[in-house]
Amino acid sequence: MSDDDRSTRHSVLTTARRAAALVNVLADDRPDPGEVAAVLLEYGEAGPVELGPEEVAGMRTAAALLREVFAAVTADEAAAVLNRLLREHTGPFRLTSHGGTAPWHAHVDRDDDAPWAEWLLASSCLALAVLVWDRQRPPGRACASGSCRNVFVSQGSGPERRYCSRRCATRERVAAHRGRHSGGGTQDPA
Ligand SMILES: [Zn+2]
Q1: Cα of 160 from ligand 1 centre, angstroms
Q2: pLDDT: is 82 or 45 the higher one?
Q3: Residue limits of the Zinc finger CGNR domain (predicted)?
Q4: 3-state per-residue secondary structure call for 76-110
């Protein structure tokens, strides 16, 4: 990782996007530890990352709690969920540079060497809370496709997208189009 990458590695938005990516990869009943590790590496974690089944199980529990934040439809709902998670699962706010190896950034886990599950919940709650603070809207959404369980971080302003990906948006548009032309209905594809 270059020095340029280090400045963005711990940004709030990157941390929130990492949270969404981990919630998605951990949605499986039995998440593949290799896939979870790949997401961590993709978002700048220094390798090698080796996760055991118990660590992944703990992260999966944390991801299920975080999913509630992404499911919130209003800023009020998101704030209420985040306040509960911060109260029940995180320690006090502190700054760390991991002994000078990273830019100064905030943590609310109990220790720099906290278990992965605690780290996931704490770092995600912190970033998502800052997004609510900054934007005054929910920090993310669940994909509007009935056949997709993905969550994503929403845009900061402007009209909100409804689907996690272009793939989901296209699939739903095609399905709505077919429905309109076969049944003569008047569903709104938007
Ligand atoms: Zn989707």
Answers
A1: 14
A2: 82
A3: 141-181
A4: HHHHHHHHHHHHHHCCCCEEECCCCCCCCEEECCC
**Residue 140 zone, left/alpha/beta (φ > 0; ψ -120 to 50; rest):** beta
Q: 168 C-alpha to center of ligand 1: Å? A: 5
What confidence tens digit (pLDDT) does each residue in 1-55 have? 444 444 556 789 999 999 999 999 999 999 999 999 999 999 988 889 999 999 9
Compute, in angstroms, the gap from residue 107 CA to the centroid of ligand 1. 30
Q: Is the peptide bond before 48 cis (omega within 30 degrees of 0)?
A: yes
Q: What is the pLDDT of residue 189?
A: 52
Rounded to the nearest angstrom, the distance between the alpha carbon of 26 and the centre of ligand 1 is: 15
Q: What is the pLDDT of residues 143-169, one digit of tens each?
A: 999 999 999 999 877 788 899 999 999
Distance 180 CA to ligand 1 centre (A): 21
Distance 25 CA to ligand 1 centre (A): 13
> Domain residues of the chain, as ranges?
3-140
Measure 149 CA to ligand 1 centroid, in angstroms.
Answer: 6
* Average pLDDT, rounded, for the chain: 89
The count of residues in the chain is 190
pLDDT value of residue 46: 84
The superfamily in CATH containing domain 3-140 is Jann2411-like domain (1.10.3300.10)
The Cα–Cα gap between 165 and 170 comes to 9
